[in-house]
User: What shape does this take?
Amino acid sequence: MTRLIVAAGGGGDAVAAAMLDAALYGDDGQAVILTYAWDRLLVDPVPGPRASSDFTGLQQLTKTVWSVPAAADPIAPAGSTLPRLAAELPHTFALIDPHHGAEGVARQLEELVTLLRPTSIDLLDVGGDVLARGDEPTLKSPLGDALTLAACCQVNAPVRLLVAGPGLDGELPADEVRSVLGPLVHRFAPKDTGPASGVLEWHPSEATGMLAAAARGARGVCEVRDAGLLIPLTDDSPTVHEVDMDDALRRNKLARAVLSTTSLDEAEAHSREVCGYSEIDYERNKAAWLKDQPAVKLDPDTVLSQLNAFEDEARSRGVTHTTFRRLTEVLNLNGTQRDDLRQLLINSRPERYCAPLWSIAAATE
Assistant: This one.
């Protein structure tokens, strides 16, 4: 009785997939979660998604699909959260390798379907950027979602498209996402975050972190990313809706463009044509910039003083919460210091920890 869940954009979508599987089916861990190893520069200093050749210790499932067990390791300097996810969650995590384009991902899916004969196949996206047209000014990372959508539309098996946390990724306005949503499938409650609660303590995903916080009752405005996007946390934030796959493909111009691609380079070229950029180019440029930045010592007194100044400014923007990724960027620290920063702040001001977010206290508090 195996279930297959495709984490549309990798990263936090894989954590959300584990939460959803437990919420809908129990914690038996029988789902296989197919996901990218694409953790961005906070975890992986190498731009773009990882291939199976970037790991040691993978286990071969089919001709082109490998699972990532807890004992696997990314080959330095690459990094990945997947081995730790495999260690802490009962699910099997299989690797999407997009280096052969959408046709390669579709082939991986077909092989898994033949091997597993799953009782259900879900394509899960947190936030809803899988529904992007490609010209939205707030769209930042459309390529992974476009490739998985294009691949799922080519599989000879029924696939259900699910969007969790409408608008939480900051890529599309929540109202625009909601206008396309179909039936409500689930509303996350506090108990649903339990199976992934340990993971959410360290995983850097902002969108899935907000999804869990909203499920636990957080409401307000959360500031995220290096750009300081403002994301509303509302009663709709912890919901999961079904979306018609054909409608999604009709909307997503990039997904249609990459349908027949056979390499990641080819898919990137389509992204530059459709969206005006490639997110991997952005990662390349940022990685080169970060390489030249001097290390900043994490001094507690300096950090807390800078935090006070940031919070004063954030309140003026109506911000009630932020993420530790955002704070790491704001305080000019690098990704390797994120966990140390988190521990420092929680130990210093534990009442402000709104797991897994940081609460911005009102001025009178």
Q: What stands out?
A: DSSP finds 15 helices and 16 strands in the chain.
